[in-house]
Design brief:
Blueprint: E1 2-4, H1 8-40, E2 45-48, E3 52-53, E4 59-64, E5 71-81, E6 84-94, H2 108-111, E7 116-121, E8 139-140, H3 145-151, E9 157-164, E10 166-167, E11 173-174, H4 189-216, E12 220-222
Parallel strand pairs: 4-8, 6-9
Antiparallel strand pairs: 1-12, 2-7, 3-5, 4-5, 5-6, 7-9, 10-11
Helix pairs in contact: 1-4
Length: about 230
């Protein structure tokens, strides 16, 4: 026989908290599924060979590398490609401290006119909680190509940018860690799965604590049914 006399306030709070944990778990699981699908999609590539560098138009976009988890500033260098201005994610300046635009040189590979190859990416609009940009310092916390173009006094800015390979001080090239499929971000799918398991696990723990407390104070009684006397 089970006798259960739930505490009203505790029950209400537990139900609300349980529902919230399930919502958070579901949200993270959906993000895991979305990113897993994006990871399997090919990233469109393009190459442009005839262009003109625009040295005074460099802008900086904050980012965290997917390969080393290092934070820093991506160097978006504009080039004139026909009648269109195209930003090229051409370099990375490590460190959280903002770079001084006057001290950053235009990427050498673009000054020399070498063909530009890389992923062609159309960034999503900045999220609601994205930090506001600092146009005077040319600093952006999300790639906002139209605004970056206006800040540099550029017209006809393309709605995509090219994530080209990074060239180190020693001349060696490395793959651009931000060359992700459209809609993807730097947080790997496995991280979202871990978050989902955490939220679902907390929901289970909450229910266990709820019933364990009622059992400890005698408001939940579990007893075997009495056998009829002979």
């Amino acid at each position: 026989m089970i006798r259960f006399r739930p505490l009203l306030v505790m029950t209400a709070v537990t139900v609300l908290a349980f529902a919230l944990l399930l919502v958070l778990g579901r949200w993270q699981w959906e993000r895991f599924e979305e990113k897993s699908a994006l990871a399997e999609e090919p990233v469109p590539e393009m190459t442009i060979a005839s262009y003109q560098a625009i040295p005074d138009g460099i802008q900086f976009v904050y980012g965290v590398r997917t390969d080393t988890r290092e934070q820093g500033w991506r160097v978006f260098a504009p080039v004139q490609y026909g009648d269109t201005t195209v930003f090229v994610d051409a370099d990375f300046i490590a460190g959280a401290a903002p770079p001084n635009a006057d001290e950053v040189r235009f990427p050498a590979s673009l000054r020399l006119g070498a063909p530009i190859s890389g992923a062609s990416i159309r960034p999503e609009p900045p999220a609601a909680l994205t930090l506001p940009p600092r146009p005077i310092q040319r600093l952006w916390f999300a790639a906002d190509l139209p605004a970056m173009g206006r800040n540099a006094g550029l017209a006809e800015v393309a709605d995509y940018y090219i994530a080209g390979a990074y060239v180190g001080a020693d001349g060696r090239t490395t793959a651009n860690p931000f060359a992700l499929a459209p809609g993807a971000d730097t947080l790997p799918p496995a991280r979202h799965m871990g978050y989902a398991i955490t939220w679902y696990g907390l929901a289970i723990v909450l229910i266990v604590i709820y019933f364990a407390y009622h059992l400890s104070v005698g408001r939940l009684v579990l007893s075997a049914p009495r056998r009829p006397e002979a």
